[in-house]
Specification:
Elements: H1 5-19, H2 27-39, H3 59-71, E1 76-82, H4 89-105, H5 116-137, H6 139-153, E2 155-163, E3 172-178, E4 183-185, E5 198-206, H7 207-216, H8 221-224, E6 232-243, E7 249-256, E8 261-267, E9 275-279, H9 293-318, E10 322-324, H10 347-353, E11 354-356, H11 366-380, H12 385-388, H13 396-409, H14 411-435, E12 438-445, E13 448-455, E14 464-470, H15 473-483
Antiparallel strand pairs: 1-14, 2-3, 2-9, 4-5, 5-6, 6-7, 7-8, 10-11, 12-13
Length: about 475
């Protein structure tokens, strides 16, 4: 695997060139255009002058906000379980006894080879710890941002890393959203992220910060300044997998600038790439997703132009442009009603002194055509006027059927989003089982609070699996009680 800065930059540029060929404008440029249209900056670059009212009726944002809210509705509760263990009544009784031993004796309450009861308790403790980490990191907001990224740019990416700043003595997981423009996959035709030969993450950082990091890890500090511009330097983080002879896998990492090594290749202790990817619309052949906005833009432009023309016509009709013959009208002209204007000359001069420019003549159906275009755009995108609240349906059954049919069109996207959340949970499980070492995990038993001793080495052969449960008022209350 290539770990020399020049080689890594060559791989990065090759992946960047590929992304520039995706679609008609490339991923980065199309993302910028889509983001402007989503925000409402929809007349960008149009030389229309300052006189005409450039109206915006942002259907793109309404469609996107509605779909994202429905996708995030009723998220499942995620729990960990240990694979290949049974949950018998005897195991549950043993688990209660084990809790009592831990409360009384702490770590010494655990001995011998971990049994079903201990493994089950460990999984519950990690599930509770996952919820604590999710609240600490604001995972709901992180996932919402990734979902918004996927709607605008086609792809949303959540990156998990080991954070030593939050807990300096022992460390804990950190999480952030990466732009698809900053992530480069070795094989864009491989849609399973875990099968990628390598992944490169690009970012621009303060030069002094990068130099301190390089000094800490024995990197090439003196060469970093060569790559610096305006106090910033581009850093590439390359993740790749080392497949060992015993069948196990370890994720490796190296950090470089264009000419310098910041941190030499090191073992992350992980077994999975710490990224989870969600595509709002999947492309058939490549890993990068597609955005619905790209194909809504022509409709949005047509709607804006038609409404602007209609408003301009109404303004011209209500406030027509006055044309004055300066040779016969000597006084000042204003728009004040009832103004008396002195005109010198013959009757012909009076008739030709003042006139009004006739506004464009639009058909009676013009406004109806605008509304039809808006309604058709919303309907074809699965966000009808009824579900958006623009249309009042007196029949509750009709409203329910309308909303259910709309949700069915989002079912595949919702299923992919749930798989995305599960993948984040799986990445976190990898961190827990590989990087946590020895620490105590907070648990509750009724009104009692106790700490479960956790040791990554003790459970290194345990395989955590993801279980989901639909959220109910009962499970939400349970989560609130445990968080106290």
């Amino acid at each position: 695997m290539k770990t020399v800065p020049k080689d890594i930059f060559g791989e990065y540029k090759k992946a960047a060139d590929f992304k520039n060929t995706v679609g008609t404008k490339g991923i980065a440029e199309q993302s910028r255009i889509n983001e402007r249209f989503y925000r409402g900056d929809q007349w960008y670059g149009v030389a229309a002058g300052g006189e005409r009212p450039l109206v915006r009726h942002n259907v793109i944002k309404r469609i996107g906000d509605y779909k994202m809210s429905q996708i995030m509705l009723n998220e499942d509760k995620i729990r960990y379980a240990v694979d290949d263990i049974t949950s018998l009544e005897t195991d549950r009784l043993c688990e209660e006894e084990l809790k009592e031993r831990i409360i009384k004796s702490g770590k010494s309450g655990l001995s011998g080879v971990p049994g079903n009861a201990e493994l089950s308790l460990m999984a519950k403790a990690l599930s509770r710890n996952r919820e604590i980490c999710a609240k600490r990191l604001g995972l709901a907001n992180i996932c919402a941002k990734a979902l918004k990224d996927s709607y605008i740019k086609g792809t949303g990416i959540v990156y998990t890393y080991w954070d030593t700043d939050t807990k300096p003595n022992i460390g804990d997981i950190g999480c952030e959203v990466l732009s698809v423009n900053d992530v480069f996959f070795a094989d864009p035709y491989e849609k399973n992220i875990q099968n990628q030969p390598y992944i490169i993450i690009s970012g621009f950082y303060n030069t002094e910060f990068v130099k301190r990091e390089a000094e800490h890890f024995g990197g090439e500090v003196s060469l970093i300044e060569k790559d610096s511009a305006a106090g910033k330097v581009q850093v590439l983080t390359k993740l790749y997998k080392n497949y060992k002879s015993d069948g196990t896998v370890e994720v490796m990492c190296v950090k470089v600038t264009e000419n310098a090594v910041i941190r030499k290749p090191f073992i992350t202790m992980l077994h999975k790439y710490p990224l989870a990817l969600f595509c709002f619309e999947e492309r058939e052949d490549i890993i990068y997703g597609d955005s619905e906005i790209t194909y809504l833009i022509p409709n949005q432009i047509a709607i804006n132009r038609m409404i602007t023309a209609n408003v301009w016509s109404s303004m011209s009709t209500g406030m027509p442009i006055m044309v004055v013959n300066g040779d016969t009208v000597s006084g000042d002209i204003t728009n004040d009603p009832g103004q008396i204007i002195k005109i010198y000359g013959s009757n012909e001069d009076v008739k030709g002194a003042i006139s009004f420019i006739s506004p464009p003549d639009y058909s009676k159906d013009f406004s109806e055509n605008i509304n039809n275009l808006i309604d058709n755009t919303l309907t074809q995108s699965g966000a009808t006027a009824a579900v958006l609240g623009d249309e009042i349906l007196n029949n509750a059954t009709a409203l329910s059927l309308m909303r259910n049919s709309t949700l069915l069109s989002l079912q595949l996207t919702k299923s992919r989003y749930k798989a995305f959340l599960n993948e984040i949970a799986a990445v976190w499980a990898d961190f827990f089982m590989s990087c946590y070492g020895e620490r105590n995990l907070k648990m509750t038993s009724g009104k009692d609070v106790f700490f479960v001793p956790f040791d990554s080495n003790r459970y290194k052969n345990a395989v955590l699996v993801i279980e989901t449960e639909e959220k109910t008022e009962e499970t939400e209350e349970e989560g609130k009680d445990e968080s106290k």
